[in-house]
Recover the amino acids of this structure.
C-alpha cells in the first residue's frame, strides 16, 4: 500500500530513532518508550482487525496473558520476567485457537462479541485468582539480580528494545502485505463470499492472522511488565487496553502498515501529558479525547489519517477500515 | 461429464425453492439457466457454487462429489463464479482485486501480478488496472468479477446475471467477452434474464419454474414451448386449461 510516501516514512523512522536523544528529560524518554510499546500492540491488533477486518475489542486478553505469564514466571519460578514471554506467546496460540475456531465458523460479528466476552471474563477470573495476585496484581523484581532482569533506571534501553520488536513486527507486516496472505486478508475483510469463491480458505487465514496478532500482543504485554514492573487485572485485561489498540489503529489508518504507529505517536504523548498536567484527578482526560477521536473518525474519516493523506495526494484511496 | 447435479432440493422453511432439479454439463458447453423471477435459479446456482448446501441430492464435478464442499475448495478444483451484485474488494486497485484470484494457482506475487495483467488485458480492463476499484461503475465491476474469476484459471465458470443492468452497447461487449471466454476452452453456465442474450449465446438452455426443470433444449425450441411461455407470461383466461 503506497498510502504514505517513502520520504515521510524515512523521516518518521529517523525521528523515532532520534527522539529520545533529543531530550535528556526522563519524562520525555519514558513517553517515547511507551509510545513504541503502544505501537507494537496496535500494529499487532492491526493484523487481524485492520487487514483482516475482524475487529477485536478484547485484545487486552492477549496483552494480559503476556504480562501475567512474565510476572508469574518471575514470582513462581524465579526466572527473569522476559523469560516468561515465550510462555505467554504459547498461551496466546492456545487462546487464538479456542477463540478463533468456533467464532470464525460464523459470519458477522460473532468474533467481535466473543473477544469482548473473553476479555471481560479474563479480568474477573484473574481478579479472583489468588495464585496470580488477585485484585492486587503482581510485582516484578525490585533489584536487578542480573542483566537478564532488564532493570534500567533510564527508559532508553527499553525504548531501544521496543523499537527492535516494533521494527521486526512492521517488517513482517510489510512482507505479509505484499504477499498472498496480505491480499487474502484484505479480500476476506471486505467481501467474504467473494474471497471464498476465489479460493481463499477464509477461516484458515483468519486464524493465521489471529495467531500472529495474538502472539505479538502477548509479547507487548511481557515487554510492558519488563519496563513497568507491575501488573494488575485492570491494567492487563481492562477494556481500555483493548480500546487503545483499536483507537490508535483507526486514527492512523487501520489496515495500513504505519497507521497504528502514527496513531500511537499522536495518542500516547497526549495521554501522558494530560495525565502529567492534570494530575491524578485528571487522569481520565485522555479518554475524553479518545472518545472524541472515535466520534470524529467515524463521522469524517473512517479510513483514519491515511485516508486524508491519500486524498491530499489525489489518489482517491478509500480507507480499509 | 464435467458437472452433474442430481435431484437437488433446497427449502427455506416450508418453501421448496429448488425441488428436485437435475443438470448435466459437458465439456466445452455453454448453457443457459433461465426462468421467471422466483423460479429458483439463484438458489440452484448457489448450490452449484457452494454458497448454499442442498437438503437433498448430489453434485459431482470432474468425477468428484462436491455436494457439501466449501466454495474455496470448489475454486481449487476449477469451479469459478461471479455474483449477481458484484462484490469488489474495497481499498484495493483493480489489479489487486484480480491478483486475489490469481494467487490461487500462483502463490508468488510476481507470477500472480503477471496473471492478473494477462486477464485484465483479455477482459479489456488493462487501462483501469491501477485505479482504485471504487472508481469503477456497474459495467466495470461486472467485468472485474469475470476477470477475477478467470484469474483462478477455472474449468467451469458460472455467470450469475453478468449482463443484467447493462446498456445495449455494454451488452454487446459483454456477449463478445463471454464468447471469447468460451472460445478459450472454458465451459460456462450463464444465468440470465434477457432472452435475446440467451438466444445468441447458448447452445442449450434449462428453464426452471417453481424449483423444477420445466424444459430443456435449444433456445429456439424452448422459447416456443407453450409451457415455457405460460411460465413466463401466465395462462390466458379460458385457454390452455387442462
Amino acid at each position: 500500500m503506497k498510502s504514505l510516501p517513502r520520504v515521510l516514512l524515512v523521516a518518521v523512522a529517523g525521528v523515532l530513532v532520534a527522539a529520545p536523544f533529543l531530550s535528556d528529560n526522563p519524562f520525555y524518554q519514558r513517553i517515547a518508550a511507551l509510545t513504541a510499546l503502544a505501537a507494537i500492540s496496535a500494529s499487532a491488533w492491526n493484523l487481524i482487525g485492520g487487514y483482516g477486518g475482524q475487529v477485536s475489542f478484547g485484545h487486552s486478553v492477549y496483552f494480559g496473558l503476556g504480562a501475567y505469564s512474565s510476572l508469574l514466571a518471575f514470582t513462581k519460578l524465579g526466572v527473569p520476567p522476559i523469560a516468561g514471554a515465550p510462555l505467554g506467546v504459547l498461551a496466546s496460540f492456545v487462546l487464538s485457537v479456542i477463540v478463533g475456531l468456533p467464532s470464525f465458523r460464523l459470519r458477522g460479528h460473532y468474533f467481535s462479541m466473543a473477544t469482548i466476552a473473553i476479555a471481560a471474563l479474563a479480568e474477573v477470573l484473574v481478579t479472583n485468582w489468588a495464585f496470580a495476585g488477585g485484585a492486587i496484581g503482581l510485582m516484578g523484581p525490585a533489584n536487578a539480580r542480573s542483566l537478564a532482569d532488564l532493570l534500567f533506571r533510564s527508559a532508553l534501553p527499553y525504548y531501544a528494545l521496543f523499537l527492535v520488536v516494533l521494527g521486526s513486527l512492521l517488517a513482517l507486516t510489510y512482507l505479509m502485505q505484499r504477499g498472498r496472505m496480505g491480499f487474502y486478508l484484505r479480500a476476506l475483510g471486505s467481501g467474504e463470499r467473494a474471497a471464498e469463491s476465489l479460493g481463499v480458505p477464509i477461516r484458515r487465514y483468519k486464524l493465521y492472522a489471529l495467531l500472529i496478532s495474538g502472539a505479538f500482543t502477548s509479547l507487548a504485554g511481557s515487554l510492558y511488565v519488563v519496563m513497568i514492573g507491575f501488573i494488575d487485572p485492570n491494567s492487563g485485561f481492562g477494556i481500555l487496553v483493548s480500546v487503545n489498540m483499536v483507537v490508535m489503529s483507526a486514527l492512523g489508518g487501520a489496515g495500513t502498515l504505519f497507521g497504528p504507529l502514527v496513531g500511537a505517536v499522536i495518542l500516547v504523548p497526549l495521554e501522558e501529558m494530560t495525565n502529567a498536567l492534570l494530575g491524578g484527578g485528571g487522569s481520565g482526560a485522555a479518554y475524553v479525547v479518545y472518545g472524541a477521536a472515535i466520534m470524529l473518525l467515524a463521522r469524517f474519516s473512517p479510513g483514519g489519517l491515511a485516508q486524508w493523506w491519500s486524498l491530499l495526494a489525489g489518489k482517491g484511496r478509500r480507507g480499509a477500515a | 461429464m464435467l458437472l452433474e447435479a442430481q435431484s437437488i432440493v433446497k427449502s427455506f422453511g416450508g418453501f421448496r425453492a429448488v425441488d428436485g432439479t437435475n443438470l448435466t454439463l459437458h465439456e466445452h458447453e455453454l448453457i443457459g439457466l433461465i426462468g421467471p423471477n422466483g423460479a429458483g435459479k439463484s438458489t440452484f446456482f448457489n448450490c452449484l457454487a457452494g454458497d448454499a448446501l442442498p437438503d437433498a441430492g448430489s453434485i459431482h464435478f470432474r468425477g468428484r462429489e462436491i455436494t457439501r464442499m466449501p466454495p474455496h475448495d470448489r475454486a481449487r478444483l476449477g469451479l469459478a463464479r461471479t455474483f449477481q451484485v458484484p462484490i469488489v474488494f474495497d481499498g484495493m486497485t483493480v489489479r489487486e482485486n484480480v491478483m486475489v484470484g490469481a494467487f490461487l494457482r500462483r502463490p508468488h506475487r510476481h507470477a500472480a501480478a503477471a496473471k492478473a495483467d494477462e486477464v485484465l488485458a483479455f477482459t479489456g480492463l488493462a487501462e483501469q488496472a491501477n485505479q482504485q476499484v471504487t472508481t469503477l461503475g456497474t459495467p466495470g465491476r461486472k467485468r472485474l468479477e469475470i476477470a477475477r474469476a478467470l484469474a483462478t484459471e477455472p474449468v467451469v465458470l458460472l455467470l450469475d446475471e453478468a449482463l443484467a443492468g447493462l446498456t445495449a452497447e455494454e451488452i454487446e461487449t459483454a456477449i463478445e467477452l463471454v464468447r471469447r471466454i468460451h472460445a478459450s476452452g472454458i465451459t460456462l453456465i450463464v444465468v440470465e434474464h434477457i432472452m435475446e442474450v440467451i438466444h445468441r449465446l447458448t447452445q442449450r438452455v434449462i428453464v426452471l419454474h417453481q424449483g423444477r426443470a420445466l424444459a430443456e433444449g435449444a433456445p429456439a425450441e424452448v422459447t416456443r414451448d407453450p409451457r415455457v411461455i405460460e411460465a413466463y407470461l401466465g395462462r390466458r383466461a379460458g385457454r390452455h386449461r387442462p
User: Anything to note?
Assistant: Confidence is low (pLDDT under 50) at residues 315-321 of chain A. The first strand of chain A starts at residue 138 and ends at 139. Residues 29-141+149-238 of chain A form one domain.
